[in-house]
Fold this sequence. Notes:
mainly alpha
Amino acid sequence: MMWRHGIVLLSLGSLLSGAVENVFADRRTPSRRDMRPIMEAQTNMPSTDMGETLWKHRELARVAGVVRSLGGSPHHAPIFLAAAKEYEIDPAFIASVAFVESSFRTRAVSNCGARGLMQIRPLVMKIMGVTDPWDPYQNVMAGAGYLRYCFERYRSHSNSTYLALAAYNIGPGRVKKLTGSDPAKRFVRKVMGVYSKVSGTRASAPSASDSGRPRLKGYASLVGTGSR
């Protein structure tokens, strides 16, 4: 199950716009240091087939190590890597979200009906075309696509990383809703704490109003930069 960025974002935007409030109030001009792991993903890819193959093996080993260090099963690593390539997000970042959301439990269910590794809600499952939320591949791909949508939606705000993660956790809405939510604040702190640990970055969790963000590792598709 593969989705193109434009189709996914258009579908999410059109369907969610009727269910949530507009968040484009109180825009701020993002600084040059604004860290958006999806929007500004850049990396130098190997120029030869052999180099690309070696890169894939190294990256898969890195992701497997990240998942294993968090108590998950390494056989999920190829799925996180596939989602990273499709949506241009560091696979360690996706894995960090999955760990905080479900502790890598494929059968996890929340009180609000969110399911699987990435805790996908029913509305997102419908939009993303998920037919089996217990299937790790479908679940992670849908979660990564939704995460990218959240980054796209709040990209003009100086605290876009906080807003994107908060929206992923409690649903998109006005900035005031996201910055005032204690559960969202706790979720963002947890995700960034885990990501800092597994990625080796000196990343502190962004606050609801802080414009400074951790320097997230950019990640680009092996076959091109994709839609931005």
